Please model this.
Amino acid sequence: MSAPFFRGRRVLVTGGAGFIGSHLVDGLLAAGASVRVLDDFSSGRREHLAAAAGRAEIIAGDVCDERALDTALAGVEVVLHLATRCVRLSLSDPEGVHRVNSEGTLRVLMAARRHGAGRVVYVSSSEVYGTAVQAPMTESHPLAPTTVYGATKLAGELYAQAMTRSFGLPTLVVRTPERDRLRAALGARGIDTGLHYPIPVHLQPAWRHLGHREGDFPVAEAAARTVLSLPMYPHMGEDAVHRVCDAIEACV
Ligand SMILES: NC(=O)c1ccc[n+]([C@@H]2O[C@H](COP(=O)([O-])OP(=O)(O)OC[C@H]3O[C@@H](n4cnc5c(N)ncnc54)[C@H](O)[C@@H]3O)[C@@H](O)[C@H]2O)c1
Model:
């Protein structure tokens, strides 16, 4: 994984001990970034960060906690916001899902503004589309989430947009492929992930003894690569980014 932009940059990954976040942390370190992780370890595991031990700064804390956010955001240029309560908690703990995914996202965005971060990347989900009315689902698919999780991820997207429009905070929203598809793909390869990924299906060295190698988890690896390859341009205003996008669209 190579992402020249990140070399020497100070990057915060919320949810960095999770499934995709830990891939991102590894990719960022490989790219020469200075990485900080904020994670409450509710579903993430310290083992996921085994390869990053001693190289990434790890803060155990909640994205809803202002003090933890102020510590985590200090001096950070780019925030990759992945901390989330997962879709399965939509039925058993909808308030918890709302607290972390909606309120937590707004708090991360406000803290990023307070600390003058140059870019916040919000990793969203295809759950914002709800039940597919067309396949494959493209970005023009209607936004009609069917789960509390999907609704909170959509709220996070809208908060990101609102923070950009109201305060000029540079944000980017990325929707990653659904987890169910990922689990099905892994299942087809004989890898049982269980409901909560109790055993990380990661490829960090700590787990290589289980026989996992780079390429075994193409969807998570691709999601991490996609986020890392996005243009971040922390010193470019939104107008400039839109001009670049328009120019690219005109060429393709
Ligand atoms: N895995 C997928 O296929 C998939 C699909 C669609 C979207 N996404 C999105 O990608 C991101 C990462 O997903 P994942 O699969 O790696 O999830 P994950 O559950 O493995 O990781 C989420 C991380 O957030 C942490 N976290 C939870 N609540 C927190 C809090 N209050 N404060 C700080 N940290 C907290 C957890 O401990 C965990 O490490 C999420 O934003 C998710 O919505 C993932």
